[in-house]
């Protein structure tokens, strides 16, 4: 069958089951109350004054009674510095556990040592927001028996709530914790800020282990995860490489083209009609996206506009804007550097939020639903504005769905910033290899070679033209790019589906086929 | 059948269903994982940028589609000043809704205007931690068709988790909220401090309405309840009578007998072996209980002992001890005066906790499980140390289970303080009218007429004797009291059971029969 974006989707898939095709960003919501039932969180019980402390991670893992076919989950707040995921998988492999589903909120290059376990039946399926590097190449080449599932940050929470992901064991790395498992990422030698992605796992996992390199006096404050959800606590020497966990202040790009695109994007936002008193704002951390904040900050000061909240993955650049009074508050599901952790600790208007509050579509109103302006990147964008942020030009998995489709669906103004091509590879093109975010959620594309407005936003196009901004048809831009780069060689695929891309509501927006 | 405390309990009861008899404080826990399943919290969905604001409470109630047989819940943080519960019930009655189960975390004298609705079929069942005044008299006299259920604070959370209480609509009064429903009790003209009892309702209710007299700029900070759980928000002129919500500083009793009992209790604690560096502490807010804190504070200063945490219903006396550095932190499920709200707002070590974290027996470790010393009151205590805190000498319901059995079961040292008799009515006696907390959880009784140690704590008795404290057999004390007061006239009951007292694990520890 084909979904509404004309992507060929099977009705069922081994290792996944029945597949519901993507029907549009809000079709399931418009039906009213979601019909899919949620699953009950586990009941647990402990005798008073019993100890949760284990002498090492292996002991904790053994005490949780691991078994074949289990699902193990992790958060990715330690980013490129994480060592806990790999250590846990190694322990499970040593114990002879097979057929594990790995459900990390994302995967980074730090996790490449698990590669052998993808090949030998230890890990047979992955649920993740992102996959990169050698793992991304291996899974695209079909190394695993069951299809991997790419979900958005909000979609992951929905999956846990509805039992699509049934977590048997979650191992939560914390930069500070007490002996009962009250824990935080906001302070300690390995501080990483918000622990927003871990909270849903703590609530639903059959067994919850907190691992820290920093046991503090009871009680640990603040408490991102509280003791009533924690079964075991482990003190280890290190939860990872702090230099890769919090890499210092996130710097604005100096690449001239990124800066040019960012400047254009800021002009687009300025004239969009959305940059007004009390607006809310999210930008990605990388390349041109973060640079947009630099120009928006200038405009806000010039025009004396004060915003409501900054959302998302938070950089110290956002913290600066909070401290300058440009925004009233920050909602922080993930913090990108050490300065952010300090702000999170000390400023009551720098609010740590869970991934569910951030982006789960099926609750009474996630934060992304209240967002006015978001600036996002793209690996590819097609002439219907569909965006690929997951597969690279060779067809390997090398990105993350993250909050892309979550924020794009909720924001009043979704701006995609990217160069029109990279090297000889077109970015703006007729058909993207993989769709993560549907074009209906993208309002405007800003490239160095032109600005294109989604035809479903005619009033936005008018605003921009009134503001003196030249607007181009996206088909024209794509044709222009093709003239420069030539027609891109299509990626050679096998028929076999090795992964699916789940939209935030649980429907399937695209599949990923095995790369030849 | 008889439960383990020899109370006559029916196997089934109309309006309740099957009854599981009380088997001992930890029998269900010792079985390992609790077998009772929990229920799934609801899935909800809202379109982005949609409004939750209703122009008045009636509009909000109508939008939640009320129906016959529904369960409506409330928190009791507004105490004697609450007007929201009564207003909501009046609206439902006006709408012709019948057969309502009222599931308030507790009921106070402020709720007496609902009395007509108990008699006319509007409200047919009550779940509550406490019932008092005219309502307590009416329900004991059998005014309602279905038996009421008395639960502990921790037991209530368990009941909601396991679906024994299925909340259709919860109406949450807040002293500050924003238009999305992020809300708190910590500031505003009607500030009441912690909102700890409301959080479980917000998570599980099919419909959640936040009512406030104080809409603040988005976002409301701090956030006891977050927007992802809130369906509707209502601004009203008043949520109640602020003078009865936060009644100023809670004062220590000046009654000589209470002070005498409190002094004795402090001596008992001093020599118990539990008053040591890092101990944790909870006292009730009333009479002799709070006065014990005064003497403990002195001893802590003299002996230079620093405690870990204060737990519970928190008074400004507790806040003073925190500020003096006598304790490291306060965990606050319920705040008793305005000074407490200010501390909660400003001191990161004054931590707002949910009722689940406070006392639910079926999670990974509630706070009461970590408690070292608790001082509790009693309406009656029998020679097996079983305590009644729910029915008065006429048999009417005039108290609250509250956290009594929760803290008593978890604390290393549970001290009951009460006079041995009041007027001509014995308090210490052979058999109490209603058991709320089993004797096995009570370690020592302190009265003006003698101190009695539970025989299951021989080492405690030794410690006290070593400390020069005279210890009496409880049977001797009861006999002594009987000589003074004469034998109390037994309460005249009908056979009909009008209410049950649930132990925190969901078993039935006692029943309440209709008073003649």
UniProtKB/TrEMBL annotation, chains A, B:
It is found in: Cytoplasm. It comes from the Bacteria. Keywords: Cytoplasm, Lyase, Transferase. InterPro entries: Citrate_lyase_asu, NagB/RpiA_transferase-like. It catalyses: citrate + acetyl-CoA = (3S)-citryl-CoA + acetate; citrate = oxaloacetate + acetate. Its EC number is 2.8.3.10, 4.1.3.6. Pfam families: CitF. GO terms for molecular function: citrate (pro-3S)-lyase activity; citrate CoA-transferase activity. This is Citrate lyase alpha chain. It comes from Carboxylicivirga linearis. The lineage of its organism: Bacteria, Pseudomonadati, Bacteroidota, Bacteroidia, Marinilabiliales.
